[in-house]
Specification:
This protein has 2 domains: 142 residues, Jelly Rolls (Sandwich), CATH 2.60.120; 102 residues, Jelly Rolls (Sandwich), CATH 2.60.120. The radius of gyration is 21 Å and the shape is globular. Strands 9, 10, 12, 15 and 17 form a 5-stranded antiparallel sheet that branches. The chain has a 4-stranded antiparallel sheet with strand order 1-8-3-6, with no helix packed on it. A 4-stranded antiparallel sheet has the order 2-7-4-5, with no helix packed on it. The protein is built from 2 helices and 17 strands. It is 7% helix and 42% strand. With 259 residues, the chain is mainly β.
Amino acid sequence: MSRRDDAIEEAAFAGRWSFSVAPATGVPFAGSGLLYSGPLSSTYACQWTISLNAMRYHGGPVNGSLVDPSGTLDNQVQNLDATYRAAVYWGVDGAPERAIVDYPFGGCTFGVVGANVRVDVFTVNTVSPGAPTTPLLSGFLTPSPNVITSITAPTFTTGSLVIAVLGSAVYAVPARAAAFRVYTSGSIVPAALSLRVNEAMSNGSNVKRDGLFPPAAADEQSNSAGYIPLHQMAQYVTIDNLSGTQLAVAGVVFLLDMG
């Protein structure tokens, strides 16, 4: 074995490279240090592949009174009360980085490059005690010391906000964001809606105007649109509701560049 391989093996003994947990209902979940590596020297920094597995059924009601003794529903166990995310820390020596990523029901895999890495999974809100059972969460961490592979980029999804008539909503750009897209609620956004999207700095000045979703197609256009590259100076994405009569409900999905 090479010195690099020896160092990574030592990091394995000093870390936690897999986890499997079942969060309780009714309380926030904060799994600290579910995945982490032992520190490597900067000489042996490498790519780490992080896999957050699909959420799995593990008994109890699924939707209302529906039960699934056969396990065929698998990961379709979560209710709308809780949203799971992961805080990812990685870096070399005294230059750490931190980003928050979505943990989707179907799982995800992404990579970072550094001498150490840590992943904490948490809920944004709580699952009601009387709601369907929470899923089984699991995941694993693997080093990729010799090959840099192409891995799907993670995302960060904001909550949706109600935008008043002729009002605006402001969404802070998260760490490592490279592009974004707007989503709207098709069940609430009316056909007569018109939205304008801008990228702005913290002082409120716009650095880029990204377009106008015209009437009769605002929800369909936003939800089917591709990602828009972020301006390098953008600190916020703002959505203006240009309708003089209709409320809007909208949020932002950010595409993250983490290595």
